[in-house]
Each structure stands twice: as structure tokens, then as C-alpha cells.
Amino acid sequence: MLATRTSWCMLLLLGAFVFAQQPSPLRQEIGKIIVAPGRGPALAIADFVPRNEPAVPAAALIRQVLAQDLDFARVANLVGQSLHPSNRPAEPEQVDFAAWGGDPTRADYLVFGNVSLIGQELIIETYLYDVQARQRLYARQHRFPIGQARRAAHVIADEIVKTLTGLDGIATSRIAFVSGQGRQSEIYVMDYDGANVRPFTRDGSTALFPSWSPDGRKIAYVSLLSGVPNIHIRSYPDGAPLPFPHFPQGTTISPVFSPDGRWIAFCSSKDSNSTQLYVASADGSLIRQLTNERGVIHSSPRWNPRTGREIAFISNRSGTPQIYIIDVDGANLRRVLDRGGFADSPAWSPDGRFLAFAWRPPQASRFDIFLMDIATREIVQLTDGPGSNESPSWAPNGRHLAFQSNRTGRFEIYLMHIDGTGVRQITHIGGRSPAWAR
User: Which of 38, 46, 255, 331 has the greatest number of beta carbons closer than 10 A?
Assistant: First the structure.
């Protein structure tokens, strides 16, 4: 991938790709958001000590998942277990600070704890210490049902990320996606790391384009259950249907909630042969058309999460699909990508500063993921194959992206940091259109 090459490269688009030798301002800005590998403090995660024999499997799983979460969060560099001292503390008074802070471990921070299984309840005590200062930064006891060791680790990981950085973690977040074969597909929901996959819809039809409400309590999607593509909304997690009008003709696609959850933007050809951009109240009782160009196709609307007053979308009004932004009242239409090629699926960063999008540049044979600074229009490339890379979706904290790629021969869901590194596959049943819950 471009981002893993030895020099940070700026992508200049002047009809062809020219790679600069110095980091671009956008690359430098991304570097402020992401802790680069090889930098930052060292974090050791000791094996969690089981207090009784039944707690042994849970203690091992909690340590494993916690390490994976903190590694992906990039709040620090994890110290390999082969460098850990033999001392395995269960309580603060058992920590050998000299051993954990000295060679070869040289940890700046240490996470450790203990796990008990009492009846059907896991009791987990977790500690985070500044090793060099010998200062406790975090201490919590959690209680979870016996089958929720993985969930417990995610909760602890997010609390540690918050303690170390002041930022929200993503370990407890969820991703909705599409999976299926042939003409039948359903919406699934999984943990951010690909675990705990469960079906959300069971329509027995074609389900597409999942989108979360801001509070994570609803999912809007498109289904062909009625014979033509229409928007369906269901409450999460029970799947109860919620009201939204179905149109008897045309194609209605790409629903997306506004940042306050009161509105839904979507595209539809319900009134013409052209797919136009609409905004509706969340129950569909009020519908307003924003575009009205004959013979033009619009798709992939996305609200600016910071202002709530702008919508980025795709339009082929210039001949090929490009990225445009329009105000929610239909005014102030402007084109933000004018480099040719074929653009798709723009996605605003949570702070509204960046657009991630899929783009097949002129003369290219596949899509890749790019990042645009809205203020400067500077663009950097995040993926460089293999295969086609599409449909980016931002993590709630703005530090990571989910996307779909067919690099293994079929589309699966992947994660990466917003500098393009740390790519990992998280589905193995086929996956498209990831939607990361806020």
C-alpha cells in the first residue's frame, strides 16, 4: 500500500500520479491524529491472573482481546510477551516495577488484573500503572455474565484508551454490513473486530445499504421485499419495523440519517426516470426534493456530521460520477472532486474535515480509497490494491476506516488506520457496504 512505503508520499493529481518526496500537509495532519508505528510509549499487558479454576479460560480470553484492541487503537506500542518478566501481578502490591520498567521489557505503562468466576458472573479487576512513576492511572472492577468475557475486554480497552489519550475508543462499537449469495442478501451486525457476527434482517430478499441512526438504535436499509427497492427502518437490536413510506415504482436507495437523527437523505427515481436526491423526516411524513436534473443519476448521500447542513453525494451531471456537496435546502451546489475518473461512496469524517471516498482515477482499472481535506481539496491515496477497495466508513473516533475489498477473490470487510496502514480482514463470510455505528 502507498502508506507503507518508506517515504510519506503526497499524491498530486495533474493528469497523472506524481509522488512528492516530502510529507504533504495532509499527511502531516494525519500523523497528528494517528500514533505512528515505532513512536510513543511502550505498553505491557500482563497475563490476567485467574482467581479460581473456572476463571482460567475467561482470564486468557480477556487478556488476548484486550491486547488486540489496544494494539489496533495505537495508543502505545505493545511489548511482546517474550520480553515480559516472570512476575505476573494480580494486585498492585505484587508489581515488580524494576522488572517491568527495566531491560528487556522497558514498559512505560503496565496493564494487569485478575478474574474470578462466581456462579454465573465474571468479576474482573483491572489496573493501569505508569511504570516509571509507579503511579496508578486506572483501577476498575467490572462484573459481566459468564459468556461476556470478550465484551468485558472491549469495555476495559475503551476505558484504558480514554485514560491514556482522552479520546473515545472503538472496541465496543459495532459495524453493520451486507452479506449473501446470488440475489439474496441480509444485513448483519458484528463487533468492530469481526467477532460476534449475527443476522439483523431475515427478509429472505435482497438487503442493501445499511445506515445507523446517530444513537445506534435504528438501522435504515434498502430491501427488494416489495419487488422494487424501497427503504426499510428497523429498531436495533430487536429488529422491529418502523414507519417509512414505500413507493410503488422507481428505485429508492442509499438512506442515511442526519446527525440529529431527525431526517433521512436518500436517492430515488420514484417520480421520474432520473435518480434524484431527497431529504425526508425520519418517519417519511415530510419529503423534500433537493435536485431536479433530467437524465442525471445521484447516489451515496452523506450528511456533514459537524454542521448537519451539508450533504455530500455522487452525481454524473458532468458526464462521469463525481463528488458534489449541496446544502440541505438545495442551495449552494458545488463540485469538490473534478479530476475525472469514477468516484463513489463519499464519507465525512466525524469532525467534518475530511472526505474518504472510493475513486477509480482516469486510466485506472480498479477503485481505491482516497482521503480529501475539504478545506484545501488536497487528496492522498490510502489503498493501492490489491483488488478493488470501496465503500469507506469512519470509526466513531475518526482514527480508522472500514471498507470492502475483493483482494481475496470476493468482497470482504477490512479495517485500516486513516494513514492507510494496519489493514486487517474482519469478515470471512463475504461482506459489502460496512456501516460503522457512531
Answer: 255
- What's the rounded Cα separation, in Å, for the pair 206 and 420? 32
**Three-state DSSP state, 152:** helix
Alpha carbons within 13 A on the beta-carbon side of 362? 10
What number is the average pLDDT over the span 271-277? 91
**Is there a contact between 303 and 337 (Cβ–Cβ < 8 Å)?**
no
197 and 147 part of one domain: no
Interacting residues of 86 by C-beta distance below 8 A, sequence separation 6+: none
Euclidean distance between CA atoms 224 and 185, whole angstroms: 10
Q: Which residue has the cell 517474550?
A: 82
Q: Indicate whether this model's pTM tops 0.85.
A: yes
Q: Positive or negative, the Cα torsion across 153, 158, 163, 165?
A: positive
Number of domains within the chain: 3
pLDDT confidence bin for 31, thresholds 50/70/90: low
Residue written as cell 479495517?
Answer: 415
Contact yes or no for 243/220 (Cβ under 8 A): no
**Which value, to the nearest 10 degrees, does the dihedral of the CA atoms of residues 359, 361, 367, 368 take?**
-70
CATH of the domain at 63: 3.40.50.10070
